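User: I'm putting together notes for a lab meeting next week and I want to include a structural view of one of the chains we've been expressing. I don't have a solved structure, so I'd like a prediction I can at least talk through. The sequence is below, exactly as it appears in our construct file.
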Amino acid sequence: MRRRTFAVAAVAALAVAGLAAPSAGAAPSGLRDDFNGDGYRDLAIGTPKADGGTVTVVFGSSSGVDPARSVNVTQDTPGVPGASESVDQFGENVTSGDVNHDGYADLIVGSPWEQVTGKPRGAVHVVWGGAKPFTSGGVMLTAPNDTADFFGTGAAFADLDGDGTDQLTVIGGNTFFYYADSGPTQDGAIGPEFDFLPDGVVLDGITAGHFSAKGVSDFVLNGRLQKDGMEAGSYVGLLHGGPGDIGYSSSVLASGYGPGGASWDRAVAAGDINGDGYDDLVTGWTDTPEGGSFTVRYGGSAGLSAKGTTYTQASAGVPGTAEAFDYFGAAVTVGDATGDGYADVAVGASMETVGTHRNVGNIVFLKGGRSGLTTSGAQSFHQATSGVPGAAEAGDHFGSSVRLRDINGNGRADLAVGAYGEDVVSGGYDDGAAWVLRGTTTGLTASYATSFSAPDFDYGTVIGRKFADAFAR
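Assistant: Thanks for the context. Below is the predicted structure for the 473-residue chain, given as structure tokens.
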């Protein structure tokens, strides 16, 4: 991989001195992922296999992202509860929001394998943002009861009860908990009034969206079905938010095998694709003869439909060729890259063959519009695309994680792409790397593309690190 290099000593000095933050007295922006309050959305990158787990936050700016403006957060960071242990998987999932209501976004990190004596596995860490982010500590939440194994498998921060204030929700195994508007405490977990999760479901992720009512969030929970100790396909369920009786109103969107399911948490995303004021749901399912698919379900006053519209690489206008084991749909993201008011969709095919090289990986970009998603003007990018740093090599898995968000403040979302299999250092294996492609009025562009990997952030070399295995949702 050809990557930009930066002086790691300078990176460390910036992180320690807090120089990545705005000047003292800067007012917080209120953006849900602006950790330092400078008015730009930031990019949080989870690397759960980095010596217990690391989340790297690269601060946004008018010129995009640069590792020279970044901070690494681990359980060994001063003030962060807990201690880094090899099995924790701190950073397996990452989200954000203003949990303590001070105007700054806070970092919400899942570590589903955290070991706490006398408790089931798993924890969620909330690390406080601020003018000098991640320097004032945070809170660690562990399993509320004996059934909550793998607590912290997923988390969301949205308005569950419709009172206008967001709150933290956390899943793990076959459990769902939420916390009061005032903020999460160890003894403050609240279970649903009705047990809405079917027996045999093992949850992978949770995604919030305004699918059926403006101002009230619904929650999509996805995972795997197990029957008689065997895998039995995918589960995608919808929990409706609202005042009281949490869990009473729910439905199943997909169950078993076939298009419409979700392969894992990276394969679910939400946003308003057709501009009608309701969020739409995109789910990716890799286990199809066509090499994978993704399904779009449109929100509306009646809520999400169970069926939706499914696309493969055999669909008219979708770049590429439908081939078995491409893993098209392994990761999906939704955001407005063109700035036209309609959310667009990027889809990762992390095992796509490029030339003669297998499992190089690829991403496909499709635009939203008044009539919904269109394949007209669809784009495709991989490491052999002109302008994309690096080279197409077998086993890179480009597109294993994706995220569309505006990080340079120009009104157009930029695409972050992870490739967990990228080999960076000499003798390395699955070191992992990330890229950022900028949004333009006509789509994505590889011009001004940036790339970075663990050595740019002063990480040590660890075989199988898989940098950028997850981006903040």
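A couple of points you could mention at the meeting. Residues 297 and 305 are 6 Å apart (CA to CA). The first strand starts at residue 43 and ends at 47.

User: Perfect, that's what I needed.
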